[in-house]
Every structure is written in C-alpha cells, then in structure tokens.
Amino acid sequence: MKIAVLGTGMVGQAHAGKLAKLGHQVFMGTNSVAKTKARTKIDQMSRPGIGLWLEANHNVKLATFSRAEGSADLIINALSGQVCLKILQEIKANLADKILIDISNPLDFSKGYPQFLSLSNTDSLGEQIQKALPVTNVVKAFNTTNALVQVDPQAISGADHHLFLAGNDKAAKASVIKFAKQYYGWKNVLDLGDISSARGMEMVLPLWLEVRSSLNTPNFNFKIAR
Amino acid sequence: MKIAVLGTGMVGQAHAGKLAKLGHQVFMGTNSVAKTKARTKIDQMSRPGIGLWLEANHNVKLATFSRAEGSADLIINALSGQVCLKILQEIKANLADKILIDISNPLDFSKGYPQFLSLSNTDSLGEQIQKALPVTNVVKAFNTTNALVQVDPQAISGADHHLFLAGNDKAAKASVIKFAKQYYGWKNVLDLGDISSARGMEMVLPLWLEVRSSLNTPNFNFKIAR
Question: Domains of chain A, with CATH numbers?
C-alpha cells in the first residue's frame, strides 16, 4: 500500500517505521522538509531528533503536506491535537473519498504536563475532523494506547487487550480493522459506533495518564474483561 | 463491621445486600423511610421497587440519613451524583474522621440518556466531596464498573480486571483495598494517587457507556494489560 503518515512525532515515527519495514511505500508529511531533516539533536526526553530518525529509516520518505498524502491509499493522522484540524483543512482536497485514521488526542503539551484542549461529552477532535472533512471517511483509532503498543500490541500480554474504533462508515472501519490485525497484529478490536464515540476514546486520556503515573510506564493498554 | 450505605438505588442495593449476607450490620440511608418502603412497584427497567427489595433483604436496616451513618465504622456513598454533595454536607458531622467510599458518578439521568454533570480535567465529584468534608477520608472507588461487578468481581474473567482507587489518605486506601479484597473478592487494585485522580476515574464514564452499548451488556470491566 501507499500510506501517508501525517506528523513526525513519536506516533508518526512508530507507524511510519513499522509500515515501511513491512514493505509499504510510506510518506511522512511535515510542514517543511528542510527544517524537519535539520532536527538532529537529542531531545529533552532523550530521543533522537526526527532528522536522525529519518537517516536510520531511509525507506520512509519525507514530504510536505499535500505531496505526502496526494496519492496515498490510506492516511494516518499522527499530528498533535493542537494543530491537526488546521492542517487537515488545508489539505482537505487530497483527503476526499479516502480513509483517514485519526490518532490525535486533544492534548496541549506546550506548557509541560499536558493540558486538555477539548475534552467534553458533547464534542471530540474526531468529530471536528469528520465535520471539517465531510467526504473523507474518518476512523478514530489507536489513540487510547501508547505509540509502541499501537503498532506492536503483541509486546503486551500477547495482545490480549483492546483496540477501540469509532467512525461513520462501516466499510472504512472494516478496512481499518483488517489493517490493524494484518499489519500490526491486533487481536481484539471493539467498534464503538459512529464518530461521536470518539468522545469516550478521547476522554479516557486522563485515566490513561493516571495509570501511567501509577505504574511508572506507558507500556500498558486497556482490556475489556467480560 | 457496622456499615452505612447511603442511597437505595442499584449500587446501594448491591453493596448493602452483599455486606448483609456476609454478616455485617448494614444500615441503608435514605431521605424518608416511609416513602422508600412504599416504593413497591416494578420500575421501568423491570426491577422491583426498593420497598420489595427491602422485604427480601430484611437484614438490611433502612434508616434516615444521620441515623444510618451515625455510628457506622465505614460509609459508602452510593447516592446519585446529582444529590450526593448536598446530602453529604448535611450529615457532615457524622462523617468526621471516618472513611467514606465514594462511588458517585457525575451523571444526570433525569432527562433519559445520561448527561454529565461535571466531567472535567480540573475537577471531579470526588474532589468536591473531599473539599466539603475536610476531616473525612474520602476514597474514590468502584465507580468505573457496574454494581454487580463492584461486589462480585469474580463473576467476570475470574476477577482478572482492575479496581481503581484514589484518595489523599494512605491508611484509608489500604483499608478500602483490604475491604474490597476480603469481602468482595477483588484481586487487582490499582491506586491512582490522591483524590484528584478521581478526574480520570469519572471521565472514563463516556467510554464505559460506549462499550456497554457496543457489547450490549453492562457486565464487563476495564483491565490494565501490561
């Protein structure tokens, strides 16, 4: 497949790196190719800058937005919650009639410990994106667990935990479920309904952060035990 | 133990019934004993009115607030999120220096499908209750799963799922953990920190409702898979 991953952060790197290794043609979308490649320092969290990551993952092609998703079969929104709505609106035409996997979370990291942008039981980023892109099939997924687990669920409890999904288009959701199982190894997927279920998926973040703090690791996921 | 269960709904019935069967002296607190006993009809959800439930569970003693918790060793807040803060403030003196297990959820059922009263990442009902009762040890617990699972976690996956806790007093949390394991059979308890972690525990409700709708059953719980 030809896949565009929008965003160059931890989540974008996890998906782009994994998909490229699997042999897909992967484009990573960014504002400025030159500026992104120039980020070669080690960051505050001891992670190599995206420039170094791109050198190590040379099968991932960096491109500006528009070029990245222009001819992609599937688009993954791994942009930060603060900026994604604006960027997606700018490249709206390229996203028409395509599936957009939305991993964004309504978090603002600009002031240190994350603030929440828009947690509410009457709206969600997922719905805002679907409204802004009415002819794109938005499928909210992956945002309820950390980047490494998103692309390698087997790393935890033999994948005995859940991926949640929400979206208006059943065929699009079926495609994302197949994608998640086939390429990442997800075993349990729970379809929560239309895109308004992005509300619950985004509002679980405070609990996720509390559990991370309690366990002192981000390597966990929610399982629905029955 | 002498235990007061405040509230006569599904959650109050589950805890009071279970604790009385275990041999504890259980008082159920209500506004009006006469009115509560008179509720003998089958309700909209095909459940017997509390009056019928009390006849079947005659070892649970019904009492007005104040009488119920006056001499109790432990108090369980199973009141609705809409009214609990007001009622707890009225009986504040009886709750001094005691442990109050807070199961309340910020839900308003008055208009059919639940509305959320106060979901936010800067406040929670748990914190509001702790602020209103500064010399009571409030422990938020049980609110993230349904009433039957709360008192019988073994009913699902051999209790292989999580009870979350939040509260400022470590000794009080240790007591509640012991209580949950000894009397209800909980196996996995995750302490999320001080009472501000009630935020995540309350904000998971929208996801809980979505999962219930997707699975078409309330009989499930969250497990943290690692």
Answer: 2-215 (3.40.50.720)
